[in-house]
TrEMBL record:
This is N-acetyltransferase domain-containing protein. GO terms for molecular function: protein N-terminal-serine acetyltransferase activity; protein-N-terminal-alanine acetyltransferase activity. Gene3D superfamilies: 3.40.630.30. Residues 46-196 form the N-acetyltransferase domain. It comes from Sphingopyxis witflariensis.
């Protein structure tokens, strides 16, 4: 399961409360017009998306098996966590409103920290969209949700995700044990990035 970043920041109660409020009222239109909060209407589309091993195999914390009950429960759990300021499950849709990808934002308000997991349909991979979408998501987490630290993991053989993460400026922090939904573990590569580092890198590119 998701775990907070290794680095621990000093966070006031006011900062944590502000982050919670931002998560509850998150504006996905700032990410793109094709983002939606996942709802019951997206269950079938998520099953189609995640049933492709090219999409789901590298992702350790997805609920399995990909059945209507399991995916509906995942969506419901994410909705409940959003009301507590702890998570956002979003989907992206194509021009036909079919699910083309998903993003799961896990937030720890009391640590001003977040984690992002997600994937896009196999036919959209390898076209640079993942890198651009990830950059938008990182900026949105820092500037809209207001957290100051993001931690990310990827499987040791997931070179594509590693390239996207490192291109965004994340700093490698070695490895950590990731716990799957079934309780098994996976040794993952681990990175961190602070909001100040993100802003400094963004200013350097302008």
């Amino acid at each position: 399961m998701s775990a907070p970043p290794t680095t621990r920041l000093d966070v006031t109660a006011q900062e944590a409360a502000t982050i919670c409020a931002a998560v509850r009222s998150a504006d996905l239109s700032l990410l793109s017009p094709m983002h939606r909060i996942a709802g019951p209407e997206h269950v079938a589309g998520l099953i189609v998306l995640l049933s492709d091993p090219a999409v789901s195999d590298p992702i350790y914390d997805l609920p399995r098996p990909f059945t209507p009950d399991v995916i509906a429960g995942w969506i419901s759990d994410a909705r409940n966590k959003q009301t507590r300021g702890e998570a956002i499950l979003a989907v992206t849709v194509d021009d036909q409103e079919s699910v083309a990808g998903y993003s799961y934002f896990t937030i720890w308000p009391e640590r001003s920290a977040a984690e992002l997991a997600g994937a896009q349909r196999a036919d959209a991979q390898g076209q640079g969209r993942g890198k651009m979408g990830a950059a938008r998501s990182f900026g949105w987490i820092f500037e809209h949700l207001g957290v100051r630290l993001i931690g990310l993991t990827a499987a040791r053989d997931n070179a594509r995700s590693a390239r996207v993460i490192e291109a965004a400026g994340f700093i490698a922090r070695g490895e950590r044990q990731s716990v799957r939904a079934d309780g098994s573990t996976r040794l993952s590569l681990y990175w961190e990035l602070t909001r100040d580092q993100w802003r400094n890198a963004s200013q350097a590119m302008t």
